[in-house]
Design goal:
The complex is a heterotrimer of chains A (about 270), B (about 350) and C (about 290).
Chain A lengths: L11 H28 L17 H8 L1 H34 L5 H13 L2 H15 L5 H25 L3 H9 L4 H12 L1 H17 L2 H6 L7 H11 L3 H31 L1
Helix pairs in contact in A: 1-12, 2-12, 3-6, 3-9, 3-11, 4-6, 6-9, 7-8, 9-12
Chain B lengths: L9 E10 L2 E11 L4 E5 L6 H9 L6 E6 L2 E2 L10 E4 L11 H11 L4 H14 L15 H13 L5 E5 L7 H18 L2 E6 L2 H7 L2 E6 L2 E6 L1 H6 L4 H6 L4 E8 L2 E4 L2 E2 L13 E5 L4 E3 L8 E12 L3 E8 L4 E7 L14 E6 L5 E4 L5
Helix pairs in contact in B: 2-3, 2-4, 3-4
Chain C lengths: L8 H40 L11 H4 L4 H34 L2 H16 L2 H12 L4 H9 L12 H25 L3 H9 L4 H29 L3 H6 L7 H10 L4 H26 L9
Helix pairs in contact in C: 1-12, 3-7, 3-9, 4-7, 5-7, 7-9, 8-9, 9-12, 11-12
The chains are: A mainly alpha (about 270), B alpha+beta (about 350), C mainly alpha (about 290).
Chain lengths: ~270, ~350, ~290
């Protein structure tokens, strides 16, 4: 009770009920995704828990398939490119908006986070429609452009939050001491908001990697993404290969998340 | 690092800055002599920080001119103005060591490595932080941080030093010590300095001249003693020092408090029209006998407060206004204090008799 | 170099404009890209929704939406969205409340559990449900082993499965604003109520709960709006039997190449979404909470 942020003192009996209920809800949130991992090591065509015999069969099936390998390569390439483009764009926009006192800033800010709010299905068919006229469907360029639009808002929002917590006087001091605005930004401001930039970039990477709906419309042929192929596979049958891929994706995102936490902890340590 | 190579004069002419309909600076002009220490003093929102930001180049005025020596600077970006600046919150770079912070302006100027090390150590010695170079910024106390910020602002021998309430985050004792130190540093370096504060005591302690600013205009620009002893208007009299005001009528060139003609210092003429007598507690004394040659104010004691170094006597004058009088607790000066309810006569020396126009400052 | 009033005014104004333009220039690549890839096509679809094959103005695409095939998908969408939002409230409120009650360490654990789905792929989570809920999946096997049921239940490729999957995916969007609202409730308020003799139950419903309503509302709006346009999970878990609004749009394009119908459906979805967000923002100022996905 000492640590409670707020709330009503409740009786012991009710408390136990609350704990039990909370535990079940947490299981509901986490367990279904986690349980796929042991199941993916099954040796049979059928996914069971616990698996009857352990084997690498479905991981071998994944690695042995040219289609899956190609799709993985496409997804990773798109995610890296998206991150590389979205991060500088988002950082630039966040800085520009933060430093300006224009009456347009509110409008620009809304425009930049709009991709997070607009219904994704509408955005998807819109991009599909546009790309059809430009010949960008099923191309890496088109895919990255679309993913940058979806991922950039995350970079923008995180970096803007970082800048709001940063003391602009530091940059002013640097400028008065003889640094041009760019030099002051690179030597003083950027090092201080690097964790926001880092987590923004991470989010951009994951957004692109996990994105399904837009890819469904505009990525195909040799540029079909992993998620697109998975989606198609899901609609047909329950292919245990997908369990192996899912496990790998979960492992990858958890690694990235842990990486982010480690960096976050280091920041907390220096303060 | 002795005397700054070329402390320039600073000429501020007709600088105006508006935010929408709000006039932050209203055609202000100020001449600062080479090597002078000038303080901008005013309440919050008066425009003092805006003017400092205009000098630094972070705020672009709507119109006006800023000259360092003969060079027009108003269009120059901050990094070409060659100014050192110290902010209230220090604004040290947390990702650099103390030496990294102080050496930053030198690295930008592509000074050689050994030369940087030498000058950084020299600047740190000036602010009494020898040997602190390798410390991390977050290991320093508030006072030490402000010294580092100061060292960083002077290490490259800037033409002008700007300080924006640099001491207001420190506790009282440290603040008073730093006031003296900054003043001594200024005397050693002879660097033209503009200092912003809302603390009138700090301004009086440190400055060659004080520019009192109110609602985007200068209310008075003067030396500390003249500012205190001869405030030009009600705003200055009220803002600098503790003051009470008594209405005075002016007719035929002489001022009357009630039915008595006020004696004024030689050569001082009362303002025309309605005026106010500025009454400061420490300028009043208990009138003994007739009080030859002194102005006399009569009233009733309402209360007396013991404040350590003095008693503060609250008095209501016979025409109903409240004033206060300070009586030192030093034995030699301490006389029998009138008790609450007793009538009392207070004496004011003609040289301490200050009149200001009754209208609020323009 | 004149000293008169208005000196340098023109040059200063020019410099000020140049700086503002420079800062805007920094935003412009991002703004232009989003304008080109997101806004331009949506505007294009908007005009398409009012145009027939000959390029003349028509309201036909909107009129067609009254057809039972479409109205059924609206109905399904609304039913699912309300149901999922409701269950999210019932599950999210106790969880957020628990989070505000436990010690710091446990709070961190719960936080990770709530954020975990945020970080893992939507598709992976959906797939997991498919595996668990299928005819011979874990849930059915377990229920049969325990003896609760004799024959496997139909848990997936229908409304039930879709609702279960969507609820799990939407729950974090409910918990986070709720938790934020609960932490901002002044503890002294609640203590004061208790000290004035209100019973725990009474002080919960009369003091604490009303103070957390803005957070609940933010969560409700967020979840509801996201449900309205949801595609992936209903498409997979519904197995083609649960036809959502978003799927009508997808089919109009992918199967029938009927851009007029797809555009009209999309425009209505957009207007409804923005309308709800706007209304809630106007009434309760919850726009800030809509920062998530």
């Amino acid at each position: 009770m000492a640590d409670a942020v707020s709330g009503v003192p409740i009786g012991r009996g009710r408390r136990l009920w609350l704990y039990a209920l909370g535990f079940l809800i947490l299981l509901f949130l986490v367990l279904p995704t986690i349980i796929v991992i042991p199941m993916s090591f099954t040796g049979t065509r059928f996914l069971r828990f616990p698996p009857e015999q352990l084997s690498w069969r479905w991981y071998q099936a994944y690695l042995g398939s040219i289609e899956w390998r190609e799709a993985t390569w496409v997804s990773l390439k798109a995610a890296v490119l998206t991150m590389l483009v979205a991060t500088p764009l988002g950082v630039m926009a966040a800085y520009g908006l933060h430093a300006s006192r224009s009456k347009w800033s509110r409008l620009i800010e809304t425009a930049l986070i709009a991709p997070l709010i607009l219904p994704l299905i509408l955005v998807s068919i819109g991009i599909f429609f546009l790309y059809a006229r430009l010949g960008l469907n099923n191309t890496m360029t088109g895919l990255v452009m679309a993913h940058v639009c979806l991922a950039m808002p995350f970079v923008f929002v995180t970096v803007l939050a970082g800048l709001k917590g940063y003391d602009m006087n530091q940059e002013r001091v640097a400028r008065s001491l003889g640094a041009s605005r760019l030099v002051a930004f690179l030597t003083v401001t950027l090092p201080q908001v690097r964790f926001s930039v880092f987590s923004g970039a991470l989010l951009a990477f994951i957004t692109s990697l996990d994105e399904v709906v837009v890819a469904l419309f505009i990525s195909g042929g040799e540029n079909a993404t992993l998620t697109r192929r998975m989606f198609t596979a899901l609609r047909d049958e329950i292919d245990p290969t997908v369990a192996a891929i899912s496990s790998l994706l979960v492992a990858l995102t958890l690694t990235l998340l842990a990486l982010g936490l480690v960096f976050g902890d280091r920041r907390a340590g220096t303060r | 690092m002795t005397v700054s190579r070329s402390a320039p004069t600073v000429t501020i002419r007709e600088v105006t800055k508006t935010y929408g309909r709000f006039r932050a600076l209203d055609a202000v002009s100020l001449d600062i002599a080479a090597g002078e220490f000038v303080t901008l003093l005013g309440p919050s929102g008066s425009g003092k920080t805006t003017l400092l930001m205009v000098l630094a180049g972070f705020v672009r005025p709507d119109s006006g001119s800023i000259r360092f020596g003969e060079t027009e600077m108003v269009l120059e970006p901050p990094h070409r103005r060659d100014i050192g600046i110290v902010f209230q919150n220090y604004a040290l770079f947390p990702h650099m060591t103390v030496a990294g912070n102080v050496g930053y302006p030198l690295r930008l100027r592509r000074v050689g490595k050994s030369e940087i090390a030498r000058r950084v150590e020299e600047a740190l010695a000036l602010v009494q932080l020898q040997g602190y170079g390798e410390r991390r910024v977050d290991q320093l106390s508030g006072g030490q941080k402000q010294r580092v910020a100061l060292a960083r602002a002077i290490v490259f021998e800037p033409r002008i030093l700007l300080m924006d309430e640099p001491l207001s985050a420190l506790d009282k004792k440290l603040r008073e010590q730093m006031q003296i130190e900054i003043r001594q540093l200024h005397e050693r370096l002879g660097i033209t300095t503009v200092y912003v504060t809302h603390d009138q005591r700090e301004a009086l302690t440190m400055s060659d001249r004080i520019a009192v600013i109110d609602q985007g205009r200068f209310a008075q620009i003067d030396t500390p003693d003249r500012l205190y002893e001869r405030p030009a208007n009600r705003f200055v009299a009220d803002f600098v020092g503790e003051s009470h005001f008594l209405p005075v009528t002016v007719a035929d060139g002489s001022a009357r408090l009630g039915d008595r003609i006020l004696r004024l210092a030689d050569g001082v003429r009362p303002p025309s029209g309605a005026a106010l007598l500025v009454v400061r507690p420490e300028k009043l004394d208990l009138a003994e006998g007739a009080g030859e040659g002194l102005n006399r104010i009569e009233g009733t004691v309402e209360g007396s407060v013991y404040q350590g170094e003095s008693f503060l006597l609250q008095v209501r004058t016979s025409d109903g206004n409240r004033i206060a009088m300070r009586q030192p607790t030093r034995r030699a000066a301490l006389r029998r204090l009138p008790q609450p309810g007793e009538p009392v006569a207070l004496a004011l020396h003609p040289d301490d008799t200050i009149l200001v126009a009754a209208e609020p400052a323009p | 170099m004149s000293d008169g009033a208005g000196a340098n005014a023109a040059a200063l104004a020019r410099a000020e404009r140049r700086e503002a333009q420079g800062l805007f220039l920094l935003c412009s690549p991002a703004v232009l890209l989003i304008a080109f890839v997101i806004f331009l096509p949506i505007g294009w679809l908007f005009t398409l929704s009012f145009t027939d094959e000959q390029g003349a103005f028509t309201l036909g695409h909107y009129a067609r939406m009254l057809h039972p095939a479409y109205t059924r998908s609206f109905q399904t969408t609304l039913e699912l969205s309300f149901l999922v939002t409701g269950i999210c409230c019932l599950l999210g409120y106790p969880l957020a409340y628990l989070m505000s009650q436990v010690s710091k360490g446990w709070r961190a654990v719960i936080f990770v559990c709530v954020l975990f789905p945020f970080w893992t792929s939507l598709l992976v989570r959906t797939y997991a449900w498919l595996v668990l809920l299928q005819r011979r999946g874990m849930v059915n096997t377990w229920l049969q082993d325990v003896g609760l049921i004799d024959a496997p239940l139909r848990l997936v490729h229908n409304f039930t499965g879709t609702a279960i999957g969507m609820t799990q995916i939407m729950l974090p969007f409910m918990v986070l604003p709720l938790y934020a609202a609960m932490t901002s409730v002044d503890r002294d308020f609640v203590k004061a109520a208790a000290s004035l003799g209100a019973s725990p139950v009474k002080s919960f419903w009369q003091v604490f709960f009303p103070l957390t309503l803005p957070g609940l509302l933010a969560g409700v709006v967020l979840v509801f709006v996201l449900c309205l346009g949801f595609y992936v999970t209903p498409a997979v878990l519904g197995g083609g039997r649960v036809l959502m609004w978003s799927m009508s749009i997808e089919r109009s394009v992918a199967v029938y190449s009927d851009w007029g119908a797809a555009s009209a459906l999309g425009v209505v979805l957009l207007v409804v979404t923005l309308g709800i967000l706007w209304l809630m923002n106007r009434l309760f100022g919850v726009g800030r909470a809509i920062g998530g996905r």
